[in-house]
Amino acid sequence: MNSIRFLPTAVHGVFDYAGAIGLIASPFIFGFADVGGIAVFLPIVLGAGLLIYSLLTDYELGIPVVKFIPMSVHLSVDFVASAFLAAAPFLFGYKNLGLNVWLPQVIAGISVILLVLVSKTDPQVSATSLTAAA
Q: 43: closest CA among 95, 101, 120, 126?
């Protein structure tokens, strides 16, 4: 399966932070903030969670002093959370509230599943960390 894993963890990290901001802002961007309930609450909570566990992930864009979550665990959480996000409109019955409410969540969820499948599981080793280790 590693043959399809071509995306460096640093690039994955950029998608993490952009995705977190996008999820948090999605009810306002797509105009469904006034709907309320789980349709609004879920992307905001998942976006905030993504932001937090990205900061704590042991990859290039994690906080150096506190990054303790292995990339493999990060990818597993990404996968489960994005599958839940994609299924949520159907699980919680808000698929009938309009395309602007549920379609961005389904697209985001499926996109992150694909991102997980192509992301490398080990961060790049930088020249400075090799020098420091020597």
A: 101
**Mean local confidence (pLDDT), 129-134:** 47
| Calpha distance 122→11 (Å, rounded) | 12
Cα gap 111→89, rounded to integer Å: 16
pLDDT mean over 74-88: 98
- Cα gap 63→52, rounded to integer Å: 10
Q: Which residues pair with 69 in a beta bridge?
A: 57
Which residue type does 45 have?
V
Please list, in sequence order, all residues whose beta carbon lies within 8 angstroms of the beta carbon of residue 27, skipping any fewer than 6 positions away: 33, 35, 39, 40, 43, 44
Dist. CA 66–CA 117, nearest whole Å: 26
Assessment of whether the complete model's pTM goes beyond 0.85: yes
Beta bridge partners of 7: 119
In Å, how far are 26, 76, 97 from 50, measured between CA atoms? Answer: 14, 12, 25
Domain extent listing, the chain: 2-122
